[in-house]
Amino acid sequence: MNDKTIGTAVITGASAGLGKIYADRLAKRGFDLVLVARSHDKLESLASSLRKEYGVAVRTLTADLSSDADVSKVVADITADDSVTLLVNNAGASTLGSVFDLSAAKLEEMNRVNVTALVRLSHAILPKFKARDNGTLVNIGSVLGFFTMPISSVYSGTKGYVAGFTKGLQQEVADSKVVVQLVLPSATATEIWEKSGVPVTALDPASVMTAENCVDAALAGLDLGEKVTLPSIEDAELYAAFEAAAMALFSASSGTPASRYGVTKG
Ligand code: NAP
After folding, report:
1. Separation of 195 CA from ligand 1 center, angstroms?
2. What UniProt keywords are attached to this protein's entry (predicted)?
3. From CA 77, how far away is CA 35, in angstroms rounded?
4. Choosing a second label site near 208 at 20 to 30 A (CA), which of 127, 144, 170, 172?
5. For residue 2, what pLDDT is reported?
6. Atom of ligand 1 nearest to the CA of 43
7. What CATH fold (topology level) applies to the domain 4-254?
């Protein structure tokens, strides 16, 4: 067990990829863990090795986050556990390809796992963090949340939602000590690529980060107090300029039709 000041970290999608590395790094920092995913055996095996290696308490929650009932089960579990101080909404599903070839089931899976589950878990835990003025929420988006390719319409749509939602939450907790971090990884070598239909070997190797580096950079960003962490983007000013352009565009709104539309004014 940890000393109670650190508390328990809940990590969704902890059976593989980034989530598995988050589990390792957070256990190393002394967090007890709740590991969530569908793959029961993988979660149990990870839990057992983390208990042994770091001496922390680890429990697993086998849940399909595309199922409303299972999301409710996770909500009930983590809101009943007052030791939870950190939630990493990391679980993600991706099927890449033309939306015309995408089955309704795959479309629903991305929306449910990437958006609905993340929103419901954030919505459930944040009031508890706010009430005790302590807690950290990490939501994993993607650079594909602000850039869409013809093969990523739905995935990019889900990650755009994650970004917009998480930036709103940041403003809602601004008057408290609660921390909300948005992490926007670029291409990272995990199983998600194979599952998405685009093998990671199809990418330029120089453009692909290791999962370890991605999580270590994301946690370093959290330690630095970054609200938005882009693990692989060297020039931090690029994102600042992007946000400034978004603000300028929003602020340019008016009640008058733009002249190029030739609509009668008044
Ligand atoms: P990954 O290796 O495929 O791992 C995905 C994790 O999510 C697994 O633990 C998987 O566990 C879990 N998951 C998927 N569907 C689930 C469901 N229905 N219910 C419960 N858990 C589910 O992918 P990753 O690359 O580590 O992705 C982690 C996050 O990073 C995702 O949000 C992803 O969109 C984002 N991201 C990844 C990249 C990249 O290039 N890898 C880039 C940008 C953003 P089970 O299969 O056991 O359920």
Report:
1. 10
2. Fatty acid biosynthesis, Fatty acid metabolism, Lipid biosynthesis, Lipid metabolism, NADP, Oxidoreductase
3. 12
4. 170
5. 60
6. 47
7. Rossmann fold (3.40.50)
